[in-house]
Amino acid sequence: MGQYRIGEVTDILGLSADTLRYYERIGLLPRVARNAAGLRRYNDKDLSRLRFIRRAQTMDFSLAEIAALLA
């Protein structure tokens, strides 16, 4: 299972670091694991969830609707 830093995730998915932090803050993304230094470490499951969120947004789902789908 891969472990990705926030910068790697932004490169892979084309999302900003602020967006990733926002999704975590509002609960679209569960609390991301941190390393000993407190830096976020995303895994493959996190990336899969983020891809789902992006696809849903391209289909004009609101963040509230996406949260309901993920629940």
Quick description:
The chain has 71 residues and is mainly alpha-helical.
Task: Describe what this molecule looks like in 3D.
The protein is mostly helical and 71 residues long. Helices cover 56% and strands 11% of the residues. It contains four helices and three strands. The protein has helices spanning 6-13, 17-25, 44-58, 63-70; strands spanning 3-4, 33-34, 40-43. A hairpin with a 5-residue loop joins strand 2 and strand 3. The relative contact order is 0.20. The model has no long low-confidence stretch (mean pLDDT 94).
Any descriptors?
3-stranded antiparallel beta sheet
List the helices and strands and how they pair.
Elements: E1 3-4, H1 6-13, H2 17-25, E2 33-34, E3 40-43, H3 44-58, H4 63-70
Antiparallel strand pairs: 1-3, 2-3
Order of adjacent strands in the largest pleated sheet: 1-3-2
The rough form would be described as globular
Rg, nearest Å: 12 Å
Helix content: 55-70%
